[in-house]
Write a sequence for this structure.
């Protein structure tokens, strides 16, 4: 799946049709998606112990699902 | 010229004899079908088709090959006549294409010269192999037209813009051409390019298969799409479908009419 990062909590899934000034791209290929700013989404497994919330992190060539541990309220 | 797509084997239903009998004057020959191999490898085409001739007084069939390195296997032409909803065989002949060619070969005029009957259909069977860059045209020769200069036929055939083009690559860039049928197999990628110039009667057909992974399609924004699998005014091929897209020019826009099965 290719996505575009909106913020750390939100990504936009690549549509089935892309357009530029001259062409339409139906079922666009990976290289087309990259050119339009979409990147492959790398999903990671939920860690085994503790409570985590999902965040999206963008690198140069991908968007990665990261898990941030939620602080225990009792400890605060 | 009657256009027939030989890339899909089919047998046409014969229509009953039509009265009065037609006589042909003026026209000496009629191109029944043409194959052009625009690929870089030899293509083998199986023929299993019957063509209605509308009671033409047939003198023979010419198989005109242009290029090099042809071959055929059991290539046979058989002429039939209809009478009271039954089909009668008039003549049949096996046609052999030589290894190299520069003219006509194989005709059934000799077999049929004694017949005064009118032909309702011609059936072809067998296979032909065409090397890269070659073409084969099947021409019906009518009574009174036997003396037509074969060079004239060959020249007219070479200049004909009507053809069927076979594409075997899975990644195809097709520039639309008037009166051309592009027959593709499974395509992973298809790009449609509009011609530099066009006429009011422009038509072009592109047939292809979208496989388990949908075909990626690139097309000019200006094409107006109608028919199956249109999303937001754009043709989006679905998976596991065979598509036939007819392009035509309406005087202002190129239109693509999509039918998928």
């Amino acid at each position: 799946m290719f996505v575009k990062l909106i913020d750390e909590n939100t990504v936009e899934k690549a549509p089935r049709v892309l357009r530029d000034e001259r062409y339409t791209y139906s079922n666009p290929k990976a290289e087309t998606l990259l050119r339009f700013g979409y990147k492959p989404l790398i999903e990671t497994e939920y860690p085994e112990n503790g409570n985590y919330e999902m965040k999206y992190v963008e690198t140069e060539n991908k968007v990665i699902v990261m898990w941030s541990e939620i602080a225990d309220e009792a400890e605060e | 010229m009657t256009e027939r797509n030989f890339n899909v084997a089919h047998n046409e239903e014969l229509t009953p004899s039509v009265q009065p009998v037609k006589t042909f004057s003026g026209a000496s020959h009629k191109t029944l079908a043409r194959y052009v191999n625009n690929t870089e490898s030899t293509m083998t085409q199986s023929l299993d088709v019957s063509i209605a001739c509308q009671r033409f007084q047939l003198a023979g069939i010419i198989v005109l090959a242009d290029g090099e390195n042809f071959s055929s296997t059991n290539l046979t032409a058989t002429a039939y006549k209809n009478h009271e909803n039954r089909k009668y065989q008039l003549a049949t002949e096996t046609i052999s294409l030589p290894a190299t060619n520069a003219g006509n070969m194989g005709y059934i005029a000799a077999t049929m010269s004694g017949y005064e009957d009118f032909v309702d259909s011609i059936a072809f069977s067998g296979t032909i192999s065409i090397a890269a860059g070659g073409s084969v045209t099947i021409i019906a020769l009518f009574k009174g037209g036997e003396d037509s200069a074969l060079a004239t036929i060959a020249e007219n055939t070479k200049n004909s813009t009507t053809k069927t083009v076979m594409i075997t690559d899975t990644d195809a860039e097709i520039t639309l051409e008037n009166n051309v049928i592009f027959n593709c197999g499974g395509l992973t990628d298809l790009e449609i390019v509009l011609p530099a110039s066009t006429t009011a009667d422009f038509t072009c057909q592109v047939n292809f298969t979208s496989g388990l992974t949908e075909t990626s399609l690139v097309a000019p924004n200006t094409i107006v799409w109608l028919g199956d699998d249109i999303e937001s005014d754009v043709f989006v091929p679905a998976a596991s479908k065979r598509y036939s897209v007819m392009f035509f020019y309406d005087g202002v826009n190129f239109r693509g009419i999509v039918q998928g099965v």
